C-alpha cells in the first residue's frame, strides 16, 4: 500500500484533452505567452502529423519563487509536472482545445531533440495501452 502522491503520467500536450480533472501529468511545451498578473503561462506543442494544436494554460503561482526568465520567455521549451484543473474550456480560438493545469514543478527543457522526444513519448504511450 502506498501513502505517497500518485506518480505523474508522461504525455504529449495533444493527449491532455483525454485526461480527467485531477490527473497528475508531466509534459513538455513551448511558451507562447506569460501573463504575469495572473501567474499563467500559455504553452503549445503542435505535432507535425496533427492538424491542430492544444493550448495549455499553466497556473504557475505555486512555483513563482523558482521561476526564471528562461522559463517564461516566448519560444522557450519547458517541462511541467502538475494537475489537470479543467479540460476543454472555450478559449479565444474555439477550434483549439484549451486545458488548464496547476503546476507543482516547472523547469527549462534546455537543448532537446524534439523529434526524439515525440517518438519516445508515443512509444511509451503505446506500451501503456
**What is the global morphology?**
globular
Task: Provide the CATH topology.
Answer: OB fold (Dihydrolipoamide Acetyltransferase, E2P)
Q: Helix-strand pattern, N to C? A: EEEEEEH
**Helical content band:** 10-25%
Give a short account of the largest sheet.
5 strands, mixed, barrel
CATH homolog superfamily: Nucleic acid-binding proteins
Number of strand elements: 6
How many domains in all? 1
So what's the CATH class? Answer: Mainly Beta
| Unreliable spans | none
Q: What percentage of amino acids are in beta strands?
A: 35-45%
Please tell me how large the radius of gyration is. 14 Å
Q: Provide the spatial order of strands within the biggest beta sheet.
A: 2-3-4-6-5
- Give the CATH architecture: Beta Barrel
N→C terminal distance: 24 Å
Protein name: Protein ten1
GO molecular function: single-stranded telomeric DNA binding
Organism: Podospora australis
InterPro entries: NA-bd_OB-fold (IPR012340), Ten1_fungal (IPR024222)
Outline:
The protein has 129 residues and is mainly beta.
Secondary structure: elements and pairs:
Blueprint lengths: L8 E2 L13 E12 L4 E5 L10 E5 L17 E13 L8 E11 L5 H15 L1
Question: Please, could you describe this protein's structure?
Answer:
Helices cover 12% and strands 37% of the residues. By secondary structure, the chain is mostly beta strands. It has one domain (9-110): OB fold (Dihydrolipoamide Acetyltransferase, E2P), CATH 2.40.50. A hairpin with a 4-residue loop joins strand 2 and strand 3.
Amino acid at each position: 500500500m502506498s501513502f505517497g502522491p500518485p506518480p505523474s503520467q508522461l504525455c504529449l500536450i495533444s493527449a491532455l484533452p483525454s485526461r480527467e480533472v485531477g490527473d497528475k501529468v508531466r509534459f513538455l511545451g513551448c511558451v507562447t505567452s506569460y501573463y504575469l498578473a495572473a501567474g499563467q503561462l500559455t504553452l503549445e506543442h503542435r505535432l507535425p502529423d496533427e492538424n491542430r494544436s492544444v493550448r495549455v494554460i499553466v497556473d504557475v503561482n505555486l512555483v513563482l519563487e523558482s521561476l526564471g526568465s528562461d522559463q517564461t520567455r516566448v519560444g522557450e521549451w519547458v517541462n511541467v509536472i502538475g494537475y489537470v484543473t479543467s479540460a476543454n474550456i472555450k478559449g479565444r480560438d474555439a477550434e483549439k482545445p484549451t486545458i488548464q493545469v496547476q503546476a507543482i514543478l516547472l523547469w527549462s527543457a534546455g537543448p532537446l531533440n524534439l523529434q526524439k522526444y515525440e517518438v519516445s513519448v508515443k512509444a511509451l504511450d503505446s506500451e501503456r495501452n
